[in-house]
Amino acid sequence: MEHEYIKEALSYYNMPESEVVLLRHNENMTFRVGTNYLLQIHDPVEGFQTQHIYEGTNRIALRETEIKFLLYLKERGMIIREPIENCDGELITRLDNGIIVTVSKWIDGESLDKLELNSEYCSHIGALTAALHRCAKGFQGFPVIAYDWRQCARIKESIRNLEGCGLNPAYFKTIQRTCDVVGVALQKVQNEFLVLHADLSPSNILATKDGLVAIDFSLLGMGHPMFDLANLFGSINGLSCRQKIAEGYRDAGGIIHYEALDAGFVLSILGSIAIHFEQWSRQDWFEDRLKRWCKESFEPFCSGERLFADDFYLIHAGS
User: Fold this and answer.
1) Range list of β-strands (E), the chain
2) What is the pTM of this model?
3) Is the peptide bond before 202 cis (omega within 30 degrees of 0)?
4) What would you report as the CA-atom Rg of the chain, rounded to the nearest whole angstrom?
């Protein structure tokens, strides 16, 4: 099936026949085509649940917004993967089965998840994030995913539908309450929202000869800037790394909003649970980790307690 998707997708593009290598498959199938192109077939891997993210949106219109946003960033000096037109002069291709395909120019570099993240890299990650937020200001594209109270409500509903799977019902009650509290917190700061990457992690940042480059904006959406920082803090371990990322963010003009950072951090966990529940719930580690999330993040947040100290120490997790 994968081979047929690739064959049909590439038939729409005027490019020489080349070796096609699968790089990863999560929310998209991502391939390197020869040495010059990147092919994305926007079809999630089995078990990767995205209904709560895309509910009520037109997928093609979202991809159009993504491309407009990337070009907007390029106009403001950011390095991006430049989209490629198909043979009909269009930047988005729709396969016969309705699946969406995009192609972009390849950027030489190594994703940060394959490198050791020293303090210099972490500082540059913070600076890159601040630059993305600075350059995103003023973008008016629509539609986009909204990482706001409505997203929290959809996560709450998706979690409610998972009850009865054999896990302690108390966890689900805590998660649902947390969705409500995060939604209220985000409503209070929605005047600070802008378009975000919304999936920043070492695997979505390249180290290139020209510096760090953010890639894979397929989950971009409108939200508080701290959501990007929170995703980084959740995917990069260690207090010193968080401190260097924050230092780089501030040095590049970014402002840390601690209440929004806490809300974004909790939202990132809730979103991950909703996306990966089908896969994670089969793993032995999941119930213990769910218990820890409730104790270390959800319950304190719902009680009005800070999660991050001023020095970015995770107060309730102890690191």
Assistant:
1) 20-25, 29-33, 37-42, 93-94, 100-105, 110-111, 145-146, 194-196, 205-208, 211-214, 221-223
2) 0.95
3) no
4) 20
d(CA 45, CA 5): 14
Res. 213: pLDDT tops 80: yes
Could you please report the per-residue DSSP string of 263-308?
Answer: HHHHHHHHHHHHHHHHHHTTSTTHHHHHHHHIIIIIHHHHTT--SB
pLDDT band at 286 (very low <50, low <70, confident <90, very high): very high
CB 300 within 8 A of CB 265: no
Residue type, 279: Q
What does the pLDDT look like over 228-239, one tens digit per residue? 999 999 999 999
Tokens 């991502």 appear where?
Answer: 30
pLDDT digits (tens, 9 = 90+) for 117-150: 999 999 999 999 999 999 999 999 999 999 999 9
The answer to whether 258 and 136 are in contact (CB under 8 A) is no
